[in-house]
C-alpha cells in the first residue's frame, strides 16, 4: 500500500525558514503560514535505507493512523448499533442479553370530594420471560400524598398489606423473597418519590399492587387544580461519591454522595418510550369530580380531555384513552362566575375524635404597589434542555415586562456555576431591560444543577441606597427542581432569606413539585407551575399580580375552645398573597362555634374574618390529612432547630394512622411459597420514561452492550504501532 503524493507532500520540509527547525511542515505551516515545497517526494521505501529522521517516523505514524481508522471504524459502528432498534436490552449476571421482561401497566381511579382527592393506583407487573422475576420501580406521587393502603393481587388471590417501621418491613420482604413467597414492599424515598418492590413474579404471569392514597386539592385565584405525576426528571446529585464506581449493576444510575446519601435510590434509569416493551408504561385514568357547586369549565394544560356530567358531578378521562407515562396529568376546574367559594368547612369523626378542615379565602385585601427589587434566577442546567428552557425563557421575559422605572432588577443564570447579568441590581431602565432581554434570549441549557451558589448569589445582603420608599425584595426562581439535596437547600433558604421573599416557578412536564412548593413555603412566597408553552401566560399573570399585591401577615387563628388543647396545622400560618386560601386542619374541634382569623395589611390596618363551623359538610380522610400535616410539622421543627426529627414519635404516629412516612413502609406477603429456593430469581429495575419535551441527553440507560470489540481492536492496533516503532528504531541503529 502506497500513500498518496498529497499525503506525503505534507511531510516534505518547508521551503521557507520557519521558527521551528527539525519539525514537520505541518507544525511549521501552522506557525508561519507557508505552503510546503512541492518537489517530488522520494520513494517511501528509500527512506528506510538511511537512518530515519523524526520526519520519517512521523510519516510512518500517520500511515499506521490511517490503518487504525480503516480497521477500527467498522468495529466502532458495530459496537454502536444494536440488532433490535427500539428495545432496551438488559444484561444478566453472566453478561447474557435479556429482552425486557416486565411490562408495566397503571390504572388511576380518583374521586374528588371537597378539598381532598382519594386515589386508587393499580400497578401491574406482567412477566413475559421464562424466568422468575423481581420488579423494582421508582415512581412519583403528588408531593402532599398520604399513602394509606397496599394490596397485592396474584390471580384470584388478594393479600392485604400492613404498615410497619421501614427496617422491619424491608426485613419482612427480603425474608419472603428468599423463601419464594409472593411479596410486595413500598417505601418512601422523598415525600413525592417512592419505590415499589414485587418479588417472585412467575413466568408468563402478572402480579398487581394496589396503592391507596389521598392528596389535597389545590385552589388559587378561583381555580381548583389536581396534578398526577407519572414520571420524573433525572435529578442532579451534588457532592463527592462516597464509594468508587464499579462495573456492577446499581439500583440507579447515580452513586451515593456526601450530600445525597440515597442518590442510587432516587435515580431510576430514564429511557425513551421505544426502549420499553410494547404496551408498557401506559396509564388509564378516570377522575370523578364532586365539587359541590356548578362548574363553568374543566380543562387540562397537559392532555386533551373527554368529560361527562351528571348534575354537579363530572367524570374526566384522557381523550386518547391510555396515556404514555411521560408527563404530569393536570386537571383544572373553575366554578361558575360568582359561585367561587369564599369559605368551606368539612367534619369527620374517627375513633372518637373530631376532625375539622376549614378553608377561608380572604378576598380583595387592597391594592398598594410598592417599588420592588426583583432578582430573576433561571436554571440553565442540562435537565432544562428542550422545551423546558424555552418555557423558562418565556417566563423570565414575561417577568421583565412587569418591571417599572421605580424597580430594580437583576438576572442570574446557573448550571454548574452561577453568573449574574449585573454586579448588583440595576434600575429597570429601557437600556437595562433591552440588555436583559438579549441576555435571556441567548441562554442555553447545559451542565449540572448547582443551586446552592445561585441561591447564595440571589439572597445575599445588598447595600440599600437612599430611597424615598422602601423596596420589596423578591426572588423569582425558575427551575424544574431536578435536585437530590432538597433538605440542604431548604436549610440554606431559611438561613439566608432575611426580609426577602422567594417565589418558585416550576418548569417542564415533570418538575420536582415537592422541592418547588417547599422552597416557596420556606421562602415566604408562592409556587407556580408552568406545564407547557401554551400555559405560560395564565399562571404567570396570577403570580405577578399576587407579587404586586399587599401581603397579609401576622395571621392568627382562634378555634372555639382553644384552651382545650386543640391541635391544628399548620402551627404557624405563613404570609398570604392575593387569591390564596387559608387552609387549616384540626383535631379536637366539633362542628360548633366560630373560627376567627385575623391579620395585618402592609399599611398596618387590621384584618379580621369569622367562619361559622356549623356549616360543616361531611368529609372523609380528614384524620389522615391531619396526621400527615402533624408529621410535616414535626420535621419542620427539627429543621429549624438543626436537629434530627423524632423518629420514634413520627413512626408511632404514622403506624397509628396507617400512613407511609420516611420511617414507615407497607409490606404484603403471601404465606405459601410458590418458587423453589433453587430456582433462580432475576431482578429487573424498571426504568421511567423520559419526560416529554426533554432532550435525549437526559436519557439514563442501564448497563447494556459494551464496546469490548472496539477496545480490544484499539489495544491490538496500539500494540502493532508500538512494535513497528521499536523495529524501525532497531533497524536505524548503525
Give structural notes:
- The chain is of the alpha+beta class.
- It folds into 4 domains: 102 residues, no CATH class; 281 residues, Immunoglobulin-like (Sandwich), CATH 2.60.40; 109 residues; 177 residues, 3-Layer(aba) Sandwich (Rossmann fold), CATH 3.40.50.410.
- 24% of the residues lie in helices and 32% in strands.
- Helix 3 packs antiparallel against helix 13 and helix 7 runs parallel beside helix 8.
- The longest helix is centred in the N-terminal third of the chain and has 27 residues.
- The chain is globular and about 75 Å long.
- 39% of the residues are buried.
CATH class of the largest domain: Mainly Beta
Total number of helices = 13
Residue fraction in strands: 25-35%
- Rg from alpha-carbon coordinates: 32 Å
The total beta strand count reads 38
N-C termini distance: 28 Å
Using the alpha-carbon principal axes, give the shape. Answer: globular
In round numbers, the mean pLDDT is 82
Give the domain tally. Answer: 4
The CATH topology label of the largest domain is: Immunoglobulin-like
Helices, strands, pairings?
Elements: H1 5-9, H2 25-32, H3 54-80, E1 90-91, E2 97-98, E3 102-113, E4 116-127, E5 132-140, E6 146-154, E7 157-160, E8 162-165, H4 166-178, E9 181-190, E10 193-201, E11 206-216, E12 218-220, E13 223-228, E14 270-271, E15 282-290, E16 295-299, E17 305-310, E18 313-318, E19 323-324, E20 329-335, E21 343-350, E22 353-360, E23 372-379, H5 387-400, E24 408-414, E25 418-420, E26 426-427, H6 430-441, H7 451-459, E27 472-479, H8 486-496, E28 501-506, H9 513-522, E29 527-529, H10 537-548, E30 553-558, E31 567-569, E32 582-587, E33 594-600, E34 606-612, E35 617-618, H11 622-641, H12 647-656, E36 664-673, E37 681-686, E38 688-689, H13 708-732
Parallel strand pairs: 3-15, 5-37, 14-38, 21-35, 23-24, 23-27, 27-28, 28-29
Antiparallel strand pairs: 1-2, 3-4, 4-11, 5-10, 6-7, 6-11, 8-36, 9-10, 9-36, 12-13, 13-20, 15-18, 15-19, 16-20, 17-18, 21-22, 22-32, 24-25, 24-26, 30-33, 31-32, 33-34
